[in-house]
Each structure stands twice: as C-alpha cells, then as structure tokens.
Design the sequence.
C-alpha cells in the first residue's frame, strides 16, 4: 500500500507515559501531548456492526428478481420510479437502494461507496450470539482463538503505536472484534472522560490519585495509561464542534458516536481503529417497508455515515468505513410481516480508497432451489475476502493476513485500491 | 413441541432498564447488618434463599493451623477474599470467634425471615408472581429491574458473604443471559431453585438442578431439541462450560451423543398454556426422545434408558476427574490468582474428588491451602465487587425510589458487569486485564469520587458518622483507612493523602479524601 506522502505526525514533547517512566515527579505540570512513537500507516478504520441480523434484501433490492416481490407482499420496496421518493433508488439497473439510504447516494455517485451482496459467514448458525461471535473472531465455526480479527491486526501490525487511544470501542463497550493484547479504550462520551466529583478540587485529586498509583506497584501501568487517555481526550474540544463541509450528524447516540470518532480522528491522538454498533435490526415482526422499523434504522445509518464521510473528506489521513451484520434475513416474509433469521447479507465499504459505485456480488438467485437452508440467501462471497483486502490494501498489514484470518485463503475482489 | 411465539426482537435492546420500586416506596433500605444470626441448623429457611441442608456431621472441617504471628493478616485476607466486601463489624466477628469458627458459620447460613435483607426483598412483588403472569406482563423492564435489584440487595446486605460469593460464582459458571422475555422470567426461578439452593451444597445436585432448569434449557435451545433434529447447544455447553471443560477430551461426536441423550428434555410451553398450570416447568417427552444406545467418552447409555439415561450421564459427568479439575481450576482463579499454581488446583481437585464434589469441603481446603494464604491482595475486584464492596465499606444507605434505582442500574451497566447480562453462557471474565482498560479504571475512580461527593441521589454515605470526631488529617485518613480497608495505608500512600489534606478545610475535603482511598489501588484489590 502506499500513501507515500503520509507525513509523520510531529507529536509534541513527551508523553505523560514517558515522563513517568523517566521518574520525573508527578507534580510537574501535566502537559497535554500525543504520545511519541506513533507511526500510523493506512486509513483510520471505522468498523460498524449492525446488530440483530440486518435485512440485506430490503437494503439493496434485487429488482430483477420476481421472487422478491412474490415472497414479500407486505414488506417489499416498490420498484424504482423516477421522481418518486417512495420507491427504491436505482443503482445499476439491477439493484436499487432502500429510499431511506438516499443520503448515501452522493458517495455512491462519487465512487466512494461500494456494496457487497450475498456475503457473510459460511457458518450455518442462526444464533445471534454464535454468529456475531464467529464473525468478530474472524473464525467462523471456531471459538478456540480468544482474540478478534481487529485485535490480531493491531497485534501483528509492523508499526509502533503506543497511544492509549489507538483502538476505541464506542458505546462504552469493547467489541469482540477488538479483543487482543493491544489495549482498547471503551468510550461513551469524550466530554465525560475525566475525573468527576468535586470539580473545584480536580487538579489536586488527579495529582493525588496519580501518586497513589505510582507508590503502589500493582496497577501503575494501567493507571498511567488511563491518565494518558484522559490527557488526550482533554485536547479534543468538545464544546463547539463544527463538522466540516456542513455535514450534519443525526441526533441520538449513533450520530454522537460517529461525531466523536471524527473528533478524535481530527485531533490526531493516535486513533487507528474505532468500532461501533447500531442495534435493533432483528425485525421479526412488523418490519415495515418504505416506512417503518427498518426504514427508521436505515435513515439513521445513512445520515450518520454520510455526515461522517463528508466531515472527514478533507483530512489528510483517510478514513475507511466497513459495515457488517451477523447474518441476513429469510427471503420470504413470515406470518408477522417481518422476517426470520437468514444467512447471506450485505456489507458497505465507504472511503476514498474504495473502488465504489459498484455492487460486488456473485448473485446466487432467489428461486427455491437456489436458496440456502430454510429459505435464505446464499453466501457466495466470504466476508473475510473483503476484510482481508481491507487489512492488506487500506490498513497496511498485508503480510499478516494468515495470522489475522487463520486457516483461510482470501480471494480478493478489488474493492479497495492498494 | 411448539416454540413459543415470544418475539426475540427486543432482546438486543438491553439498555433503558427501569426497575420498579413501587414495592419499595415506603421502605428505606436499612444498613447492612454486621453481625449475622446463624440458625442452629440450616433448616429454618426464608423464602428467598433456600439451601440444601447438608448434614454438617458427615464431613469434618479441615483444621486451620491455629494462632500464628500472622493471625491478624490472615483473618483480614481470608475474610476480604471470601466476601463481597468488608467493614469493621465483619472483621470484628471473625476476630472475636476465630477464623475457623467464622468460616464454619459462613458455610451454614441461616435466613431468618425478618432479617433486614428479607424485609426488603419481600416487597419485590414481581419476584413472587407465577411464571404465567410474568410472561404476560407488558412491561418486562420492571421484572428485570426487580431481579437485578434483588441480586444487589443480597450481595450488599447479606451477612452470609461467602454464600453470596458462591452464588455469584455459580451464576457465572452456569451463566444465563437475560436476552429475551421468557429467559428473564425463568431465570428468577433458576436463581432461587438452582443457584441459591445449591451454592454451598453438592456439585452433582447443582448440576442436576441446572440440567432441569427451564431457564437453562430455554436459553441454550435444549427445549427445541428433538429426536429428528437434536439441538446441540446445551449438550455442548454442558460438556464444555459446565463439567469437563474445553480440554475435557470430548469430541464433536460426544457432543452429538450427549444431544441425543438429552432429546425430550424440555419445558411445558405456551401451547400447553391453557391446559395446565405447569407452564415454564421441566418436562420429559418420551416421544421426542432418541432412545437408542449412546456412547459418550467411555460411558455407555443402553437403549431404552429414557430419561434415566440422561440422569446417569449427569452422574458420569459430575464425578469425572476432568470435571473435578475444571471446577477446581475455576475456583482457584476466583479465589487465589488469575494464574493459580498447579499445586493449588491439585489440592482442590483432591478435595473435590475425595468428597464427591462437596462444595463446602472444597472451600475448607481452599482457605487452608498455603497458596491461598500467600495470595493476599492478589486478585483485582471485578466491577460488581468494587461496587458492592464500596457500598458495604461506607455503610451506604440506598434510596428506594424508581429514579434512584434506575440510576444504580445505569452505574452498573456502565461498569460493564451488570449481573446476568454477560451475553454468553460462559460468564464474566475473571482476569484483571479484562477489567483494567482506561475506561474501566476511570469508571472506578469516578464511582468512588462521585459517591462520596453525593452525586448519586440513590446513595447516601453517612460520612459524618464515619468521620466521627477526627480532629486532624492524620486522624481522618487513618480512621477511613481502617473503615474501608481494615488496616492502615502504607506510609507513602498515607503521606500522599496527608499532603492532599493540607490543601484546605478538613471537613470540606473529607469526601474527596474518602473518595481517594476508595479509588486507590488498595481498595481495588481483594
């Protein structure tokens, strides 16, 4: 991969970590620094997991399939019609987007949004937990390796990044994909990532706390990392954040999470990977069609990602977004105008390094003999093909694919430019 | 059997729990009692926590070496490690009657109905309602909220701290995630009839209860398993997580054979809803059972064994040496160290095998083991332990109103260890690195500081009482250290606090001083 004029970030002075490791007294003024020794390569990865099993067939509609319309009488999206925004948005004469995804059409037209269809994990499980577990571990069918695919990427990466904010789990959790030896900071709110309590005593409290952890060996390293993270967060001015280029994030947790990732990316604190989730996709009943439960989620999804994409467009360091879900949903609607757990699903890849404006698929078809198991869309592209290419072409870790996706030989689709 | 039509849609939206406290409206959660009132025999049992009455005479307690120079230290270490939290009253009891007697007392909890703990629990009406009613309830959040609250109250208020630690241990070992409506309801019964009933009893009986627990059978899809289409989920976890362990030497074949053996084990479901009042209870359905020969490891189930075949399989698994090893290692991780020495695991394994899996016997062996004795302050408190121990140490008063309860649940959720919300059957991780992320550390510090600063309307700390008439910073620091830690701080740390106290008025700084001690590394370790 090359981003040849990737300028080294000239981080200021010493990090709080190295100040301590030199044995300098803790009363020295705590200067806000980014850590030294960061040599970031590649795009900043944002990995969005849609929890619940997102219904790919209603997200990217195969308009050429009679079966789609026949099997989904109440939840189908009407065929695209010019000027009618209550119909699907045509993409390439075959597939069309759910109208709620309109905000992402610009990125599609600009060639920065790629869509993969009939993709996912080859494991047959319809259990949310197992499916998510396998997908985030990166080892479908196997639970013996305790790390996640991103965790293994970070661990094996041939560069040095000791920033406490190298990997972030948004929503206050640590997503399973991030599991591994490289520490992860779980973050709910940048603004709240500081000591609470009596604010008038804040500095004294922080000093005393830091000293308590220094004189006692046990958790000293962890405490230092925490203070380091707090210092970095403090650099990010949360009060009057103005997204670039007029981008407008949607209200709510999802929009806020994306905005905070953007802030951290811009603040150059050493962020490499951020994971976040959007839940509620388990639409077993009353799924809706053009309007309704799924449509509402897709609107959030699209508004959030398009704002994020626009906001970070002019950054010198690229962002790449990848989305996935543990499985898709049954082709036929069920008795509650919803859908049950399925198999094949979709992925979105968004960013400057994406060969977008294209649907990547080996479409298996929807006639009865073409379906998988109890009536699901087949998986014809293993999701690891996409992720492996992402790691190789955009994240700069091409040499370690075998340890990141053990036992798997990826078949790259040219979705990302190297 | 027809699967219930209960929608699983909202199981992923686990946020926004709002426990009801209307039952608690008029009640002020009392302070934790320091001195327990042991029952003469563990037979007079209150409603909430039933225990098997294991005749104490059968297994003589392991003698704990009598007075040594380290008696003080040893008492503090043992009581602290084997409890959710300590305060001066607990320590006083152990010092007064001696460590051995204290531990025996703890292994034989009584449960007088009118204990402060039970008086509060009694008002959680939903936890007494029948299954049918709970499933039909519109607002499931209330059910979950009351259940979480009941777990918290038990942990904080109960004088039977060793018992509560074992309840937590087995809850995680036989973890059931409150993912959906039915599981949330059924788990209430599992907590009472499986975990709390057998936490200090026999592992075989605990396993028996769990394998017949509708909550477990539903959670792991056993209820869907039929002869034509056996479901392997429970079978696999039975071997991998509950008994032999992942290195137990079984194969995929053994998992499938186990699944076959358990076909027909199910729950009276909603289709039977109107036929019987037994909805949500265990049932064996012979017509769904695969009655052929099965072979699991070196154990054969003859054809025609019916339900008995599965029962005998449980016997085999419970008494297997791999099970003894697996459980012993987990106990050693819980109570000795993240990476316990093999010698300690050996010791516990022997006790397990020699006593046919008697939990009390294994625990007696545990606290007498030299590795245990040498492991003081070596285990990090997980967030739940930190939370509970802080409330115990500060003699906190909890407010019962709905908003306050919601606040407590939120704090727990942020901490990452809300009871019953680990989303997999294996239970919360038990090693320090999992919990010591930046946000994990910051959460602890903030909980300590904010609690003492009075930021939570749900929690009132009687700081004036804790301060008594401390006249100087040194007085206060020492007083609070003794209260929270059971001992004085080391000199260097003590000096840090004295320096901090020099900054201003003692009274104004007291909450921060207390918060610093509670946030310090000394209060993070058990």
Sequence:
């Amino acid at each position: 991969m090359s981003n040849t004029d990737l300028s080294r970030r000239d981080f200021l002075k010493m990090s709080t970590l190295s100040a301590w490791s030199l044995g300098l007294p803790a009363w020295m003024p705590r200067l806000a620094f980014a850590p030294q020794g960061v040599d970031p390569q590649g795009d900043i990865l944002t990995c969005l997991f849609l929890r619940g099993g997102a219904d790919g067939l209603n997200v990217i509609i195969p308009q050429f399939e009679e079966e789609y319309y026949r099997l989904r009488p109440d939840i189908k999206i009407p065929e695209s019609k010019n000027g009618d925004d209550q119909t699907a948005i045509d993409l390439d004469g075959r597939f069309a987007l759910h109208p709620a995804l309109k905000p992402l059409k610009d990125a599609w037209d600009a060639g920065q949004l790629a869509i993969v269809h009939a993709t996912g994990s080859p494991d047959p499980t319809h259990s949310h937990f197992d499916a998510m577990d396998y997908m985030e571990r990166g080892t479908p069918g196997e639970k013996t390796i305790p790390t996640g695919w991103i965790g293994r990427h970070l661990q094996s990466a041939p560069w040095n990044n000791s920033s406490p904010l190298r990997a972030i789990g948004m929503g206050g959790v640590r997503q399973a994909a991030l599991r591994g030896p490289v520490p992860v900071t779980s973050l709910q709110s940048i603004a709240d990532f500081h000591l609470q309590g009596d604010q008038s005593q804040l500095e004294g409290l922080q000093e005393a706390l830091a000293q308590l952890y220094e004189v006692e060996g046990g958790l000293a390293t962890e405490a230092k990392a925490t203070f380091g993270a707090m210092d970095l967060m403090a650099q990010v001015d949360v009060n009057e954040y103005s997204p670039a280029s007029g981008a407008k994030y949607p209200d709510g947790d999802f929009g806020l999470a994306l905005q905070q990732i953007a802030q951290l990316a811009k603040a150059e604190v050493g962020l490499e990977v951020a994971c976040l989730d959007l839940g509620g996709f388990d639409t077993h009943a009353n799924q809706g069609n053009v309007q309704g439960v799924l449509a509402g989620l897709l609107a959030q999804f699209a508004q959030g990602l398009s704002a994020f994409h626009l906001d970070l467009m002019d950054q010198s360091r690229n962002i790449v977004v990848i989305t996935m879900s543990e499985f898709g949903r049954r082709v036929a609607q069920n008795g509650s105008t919803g859908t049950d757990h399925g198999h094949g699903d979709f992925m979105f890849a968004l960013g400057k390094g994406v060969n977008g404006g294209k649907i990547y698929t080996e479409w298996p078809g929807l006639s009865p003999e073409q379906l998988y198991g109890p009536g699901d869309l087949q998986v014809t592209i293993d999701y690891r093909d996409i992720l492996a290419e992402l790691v190789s072409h955009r994240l700069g870790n091409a040499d370690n694919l075998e340890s990141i996706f053990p036992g798997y030989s990826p078949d790259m689709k040219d979705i990302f430019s190297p | 059997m027809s699967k219930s039509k209960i929608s699983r849609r909202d199981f992923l939206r686990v946020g926004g729990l709002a426990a009801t406290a209307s039952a608690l409206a008029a009640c002020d959660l009392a302070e934790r009692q320091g001195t327990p009132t042991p029952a003469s025999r563990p037979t007079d049992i209150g409603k909430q926590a039933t225990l098997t009455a294991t005749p104490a005479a059968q297994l003589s307690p392991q003698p704990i070496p009598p007075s040594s120079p380290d008696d003080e230290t040893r008492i503090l270490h043992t009581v602290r490690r084997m409890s959710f939290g300590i305060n001066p009253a607990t320590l006083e009891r152990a010092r007064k009657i001696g460590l051995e007697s204290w531990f025996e007392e703890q292994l034989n909890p009584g449960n007088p109905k009118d204990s402060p703990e039970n008086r509060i629990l009694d008002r959680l009406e939903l936890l007494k309602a029948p299954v049918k009613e709970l499933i039909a309830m519109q607002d499931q959040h209330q059910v979950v909220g009351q259940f979480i609250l009941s777990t918290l109250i038990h942990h904080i208020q109960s004088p039977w701290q060793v018992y509560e630690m074992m309840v937590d241990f087995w809850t995680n070992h036989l973890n059931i995630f409150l993912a959906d409506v039915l599981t949330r309801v059924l788990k209430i019964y599992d907590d009472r009839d499986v975990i709390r009933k057998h936490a200090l009893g026999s592992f075989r009986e605990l396993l028996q209860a769990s394998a017949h627990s509708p909550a477990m059978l539903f959670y792991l899809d056993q209820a869907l398993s039929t002869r034509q289409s056996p479901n392997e989920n429970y079978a696999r976890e039975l071997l991998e997580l509950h008994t032999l362990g992942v290195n137990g030497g079984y194969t995929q074949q053994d998992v499938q054979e186990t699944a076959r053996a358990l076909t027909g084990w199910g729950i009276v479901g909603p289709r039977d809803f109107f036929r019987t009042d037994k909805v949500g209870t265990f049932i064996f359905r012979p017509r769904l059972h695969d009655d052929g020969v099965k072979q699991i490891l070196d154990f054969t189930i003859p054809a025609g064994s019916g339900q008995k075949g599965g029962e005998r399989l449980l016997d085999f698994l419970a008494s297997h040496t791999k099970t003894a090893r697996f459980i012993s290692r987990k106990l050693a991780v819980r109570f000795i160290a993240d990476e316990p020495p093999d010698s300690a695991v050996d010791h516990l394994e022997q006790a397990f095998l020699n006593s046919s899996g008697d939990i009390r016997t294994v625990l007696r062996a545990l606290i007498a083991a030299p590795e245990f004795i040498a492991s003081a302050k070596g285990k990090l408190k997980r967030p739940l332990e930190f939370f509970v121990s802080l409330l115990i140490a500060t003699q906190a008063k909890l407010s019962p109103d709905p908003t306050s309860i919601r606040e407590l649940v939120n704090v727990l959720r942020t901490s990452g260890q809300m009871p019953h919300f680990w989303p997999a059957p294996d239970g919360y991780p038990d090693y320090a690195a999992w919990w010591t992320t930046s946000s994990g550390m910051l959460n602890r510090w903030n909980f300590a500081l904010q609690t003492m600063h009075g930021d939570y309307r749900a929690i009132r700390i009687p700081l004036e009482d804790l301060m008594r008439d401390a006249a100087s910073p040194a007085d206060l620091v020492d007083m609070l250290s003794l209260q929270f830690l059971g001992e004085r701080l080391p000199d260097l740390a003590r000096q840090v606090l004295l320096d901090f106290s020099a900054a201003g008025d003692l009274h104004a700084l007291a909450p921060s001083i207390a918060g610093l001690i509670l946030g310090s590394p000394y209060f993070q370790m058990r």
Observations:
- Residues 1-61 of chain B have pLDDT under 50 and may be disordered.
- Chain B touches chain A through 49 residues (CB under 8 Å).
- The radius of gyration of chain B is 24 Å.
- The first strand of chain B starts at residue 265 and ends at 267.
